[in-house]
Write a structure and sequence with these properties.
By secondary structure, the protein is an alpha/beta fold. It is built from three helices and three strands. The protein starts with 5 loop residues before the first strand and ends with a strand.
């Protein structure tokens, strides 16, 4: 009987989400540790007062400087109605939809 090897992934931003998916596809057991209570990494802008270690240094009105066609996941196209250069909130919604579509959240330990 073989057991799945466990892989630790730090952060549930763009790289963390794709790492989780790659591990699952390779038959590994990913365990992701995200210090916030949600996915998105630097793109997740907190409004209001929160501890320094969870604040993004991103401005809430920042737009991606790469077009949606160039920054989307190859196996999960961006919705056609998204603007060409995504604002933070649209980017977070896209990453969240990606995580939901591929059932990645079950591998994430939030606030850890």
């Amino acid at each position: 009987m073989s057991t799945k090897r466990t892989v630790a992934i730090i952060g549930a931003g763009v790289s963390g989400l794709t790492a989780i998916k790659a591990c699952v596809e390779e038959g590994l057991k990913p365990v992701c540790f995200e210090r916030r209570d949600t996915i998105g990494g630097l793109w997740n802008v907190y409004e209001g007062s929160v501890p320094d270690f969870v604040q993004s240094r991103m401005f809430s009105n920042v737009l991606m400087n790469t077009s949606k066609d160039m920054c989307c996941f190859s196996d999960f196209p961006m919705p056609k109605d998204c603007p060409m250069f995504l604002p933070c909130r649209d980017a977070i919604n896209y990453y969240d939809a990606y995580a939901e579509h591929f059932k990645l959240k079950q591998y994430i330990n939030f606030q850890q």
